[in-house]
Amino acid sequence: MNDHLILALSKGRIFEDTLPLLAAAGITVLENPETSRKLILPTSDPAVRVLIVRATDVPTYVQHGAADFGVAGKDVLLEHGGEGLYQPIDLNIARCRMSVATKAGFDYENAVRQGARLRVATKFVHTARQHFASKGVHVDLIKLYGSMELAPLVGLSDAIVDLVSTGSTLRANNLVEVEQIMEISSRLVVNQAALKLKRARLQPILDAFERASAQGK
Ligand code: ATP
Ligand code: MG
Question: Is beta strand 118-122 parallel, antiparallel or unpaired with respect to 40-42?
Fold first, then answer.
């Protein structure tokens, strides 16, 4: 049992972008999470299985050792805090940026200059708090779990902190990106005990992931 490995992934872009990395390690996932109802997927390697969990839950499964390793966005890791996790590799996948956006026409620079109290809606409360504190901007944070773009449109907030890639969702909702906070990509996270106890099986996979992700840079 000690040489079995469990990898936690979320459906969607992280799963899709991790498949080529698994392929580089000689591993094929045998079921498609978009069509299968299974949450534990077999792979071509009988000793490796994939858990399908919510993106925000990946660090939790790995931290507690329910998964040996996983793939999670920097955004998710910053909110989680990263306790109990070893983060050896930036996989350079699911790239986007964390930004501040407001309704078109809202004078963000002026509001910040005036020292006004900004109402900011976001899923990324920890990162947003840090960002505005470092600028000395007073904010009231409003925690949301999705569809942040709606908040400024209906007067719930002045601004949002959200992930942006092409900007088309912002544009479709008459919002503008007024400040970029940081670049985001997904990281490999490994349970610290598993790294020691299962090193022999894990290391070749970590090496293959590292080589394959460096090629994409
Ligand atoms: P859900 O969509 O199920 O509510 P989620 O938004 O947390 O969950 P995904 O949309 O699959 O899950 O995002 C997973 C990760 O991919 C995020 O944590 C982030 O690092 C990255 N990501 C999010 N949006 C984008 C984007 N537009 N382009 C590239 N990467 C993104
Ligand atoms: Mg999403």
Answer: unpaired
Nearest CA to ligand 1 atom 18: 73
What is the total residue count of the chain?
217
> pTM higher than 0.85 for the full model?
yes
Nearest ligand for residue 162 CA: 1
Ligand 1, from 163, 168, 187: best to mutate by most atoms within 8 Å of Cβ? 163
Domains of the chain as residue ranges with CATH: 5-95+185-215 (3.40.190.10), 96-183 (3.40.190.10)
Cβ proximity of 85 and 123 under 8 Å: no
Tens-of-pLDDT digits for all 217 residues of the chain? 567 999 999 999 999 999 999 999 999 999 999 999 999 999 999 999 999 999 999 999 999 999 999 999 999 999 999 999 999 899 999 999 999 999 999 999 999 999 889 999 999 999 999 999 999 999 999 999 999 999 999 999 999 999 999 999 999 999 999 999 999 999 999 999 999 999 999 999 999 999 999 876 6
- Evaluate: CB of 186 within 6 angstroms of ligand 1: yes
The residue whose CA has the least distance to atom 7 of ligand 1 is 55
Pairing verdict, β 159-164 and 85-103 = antiparallel
